[in-house]
Amino acid sequence: MTGFQLAEINVGRLIAPYGSPAVAEFVASLPAINALADAQPGFVWRLTGAGDDATDIQAFDDPLMAMNMSVWENLEALAAFVYRSGHRDFMRRRREWFEPPGDAYMALWWTPAGSRPTPAEGRARLEALRRDGPTPFAFSFRQPFPPPGAGAIAPILDACA
User: Fold this and answer.
1) What is the C-alpha to C-alpha distance for residues 103 and 70, in angstroms, rounded to an integer?
2) pTM of this prediction?
3) What's the whole-number mean pLDDT along residues 26-42?
4) What does the pLDDT look like over 59-89, one tens digit per residue?
5) Would the CA dihedral through 94, 98, 102, 106 be positive or negative?
6) Residue 17 — φ and ψ, nearest 5°?
7) Sequence-ordered list of residues with C-beta below 8 angstroms from that of 144, at least 6 positions apart, any chain
8) Across residues 1-21, what is the average pLDDT?
9) pLDDT in tens, 105-157
10) Cα(134)–Cα(112) distance, rounded to whole angstroms?
């Protein structure tokens, strides 16, 4: 135990506003996907707004920019949810509801255990990853960094392929 947990932000620009038929299936699927995350071993917390999701939280100037943030016990727990659960099939359909990303759409970082990152912090981490590439401040599954005080770790995508 390092005293740190893994935080993540993922974003995407919707092809149409919330409430539009073009994204209705995505919005309707959120409760099931969020329940899957909540039940996943290693899940700690996820950002929610007025409802049980983050759809009403606006961290970007663009109203079509959707955001999700969560905290996990470790990199392996998040990878298991993202790549080895029912979330994987949902994620594979991303292009049905989101514009193709032009840059990194997910950033990971270590946060002190028990802390909850803010949307502004998540945005700053994502912007840093886009600007500087992977660093201990913000990284990806493909090029992860260990928690402070821990030894090196291997890229997680190699293990998920």
Assistant:
1) 20
2) 0.90
3) 94
4) 999 999 999 999 999 999 999 999 888 888 8
5) negative
6) -65, 155
7) 75, 108, 134, 153, 154, 155, 156
8) 92
9) 999 999 999 999 999 999 999 999 999 999 999 999 999 999 998 776 767 75
10) 19
Identify the residue with better confidence: 52 or 71. 71
pLDDT band at 158 (very low <50, low <70, confident <90, very high): very low
Question: Rounded to a whole number, what is the distance in angstroms from the first to the last CA of the chain?
Answer: 27
| Distance between CA atoms of residues 43 and 114, nearest Å | 12
Is 17:98 a contact under the CB 8 Å cutoff?
no
- What is 3-62 written as a DSSP string? SEEEEEEEEEEBSS-TTSGGGHHHHHHHHHHHHHHHHSTTEEEE---SSSSSTT---SSS
Are the C-beta atoms of 47 and 119 separated by less than 8 Å?
yes
Domains of the chain and any CATH numbers: 4-160 (3.30.70.100)
Closest CA to 141 of 60, 77, 93: 77
Is 75:6 a contact under the CB 8 Å cutoff? yes
Q: Which residue has the tokens 């992977």?
A: 134
Give the distance, in angstroms, between the CA of residue 95 and the centroid of all CA atoms in the same chain: 16
